[in-house]
Amino acid sequence: MSRVTARRRMRRISPTGEIQRPDTLAVEEPLEIRIGGESLAITMRTPGNDVDLVHGFLLSEGMIGVAEEIMAARYCAGTDDDGRQTYNVLDLTLRHPVPMRPKNFLTTGACGLCGKTALDEVRTLSRYPIAEGGAVVDTQVLSGMTDTLRGKQFLFEATGGLHAAGLFTTDGTVLAVREDIGRHNAVDKVIGWALRQNLVPARDLVLIVSGRASFELVQKATMAGIPMLGAVSAPSSLAVDLAAESGLTLAAFLRGGTMNVYTHPDRIVVTPNDTSMLA
C-alpha cells in the first residue's frame, strides 16, 4: 500500500541558530473514486482505509444507505514516477445504479451548498433522521473523549499535520479512530467503518473531531444518524444551523473540561461539580 508518511529535508531556523535535517511529513495523494469504471470524484487524502473512506463518502452523499450496496471495491493498477505500485484509483461495483454527479464535485473540503438550500438538501437526503433522545452523555465523559482521541493520533504525533475523527459509545469507549490530512476524509473513514460494521444508523454513538465543526462534518454526522458531534475547536454558523434543524447535539471548544453546547443540550448531563460548564 502507499505510504502515509514521507521524509523531506528542511532547514530549521530558530533564535539559537539553524540546522538542516530530514522531517517527517504526512503524505497527501489524490484518490479517484469510480463507479463501474466511470469517474465520480477525486479527493486529496492520506492513503489508508480507502475502502472505509468511499463507504463513508457515498453514505454522506446519499448514494448508499447500507454497506451491502457496494458489491466490490478494487484498486486499478498504476505506478508512480519511480515505478512503485500506486493505489490511487478505486473502482466500485454497486448493487443498484445511482445517479452520477459531476466529476469534480469533491475536490476540496467545501460543501458547495449554502444557506437554506444546504439545510433542505441534507434534510431531504438523509435516510436516518435523528430522533429525540439517544446518546445521553455525562460532561466528564464527553470531555474525556477528546483526550482519548488525542492519545490515538499516532500519525499526528509523527507529522503534526493530520486531522482525526473518532466514534465513541456513551460511556467513553472508543470504537474507531481515523486520521487524514482532510478533516472531511477522516470523518468519512470513521463513518465508513461504522457502516461496514452495521452500526449505521449510529443512534447511540458520539462523533468527536480534532478540529473545527464545519457544515460538512455536521452533514456527514446527520447522514449517518449520529445524534452528537463534539469538536475541539469552533463551529461555523451554518454548522450550528444544520445541527439545530437536524436534531443533532453540537458541542465545541471541548478543552480541559469545558465546552460550549450550541444545539439540543438535553443529551448532555452536567455532573454536580460541572454546573458552570454549560453557562
UniProtKB/TrEMBL annotation:
This protein's record includes keyword Lipoprotein: no
GO BP terms in the entry: Mo-molybdopterin cofactor biosynthetic process
Keyword flag Nucleus: no
Compositionally biased residues, Basic residues: 1-12
Region (Disordered): 1-21
GO molecular function terms listed in the Swiss-Prot or TrEMBL record: sulfur carrier activity; sulfurtransferase activity
Main location: cytoplasm
Subcellular location: Cytoplasm
Keywords: Cytoplasm, Molybdenum cofactor biosynthesis, Transferase
Catalytic residues as annotated in Swiss-Prot or TrEMBL: C111 (cysteine persulfide intermediate)
Entry GO terms, CC: cytoplasm
Its job: Required for formate dehydrogenase (FDH) activity. Acts as a sulfur carrier protein that transfers sulfur from IscS to the molybdenum cofactor prior to its insertion into FDH.
Family in the record: Belongs to the FdhD family.
NCBIfam families, A to Z: fdhD_narQ, PRK00724.1-2
Name of the protein this chain belongs to: Sulfur carrier protein FdhD
Lineage: Bacteria, Bacillati, Actinomycetota, Actinomycetes, Mycobacteriales
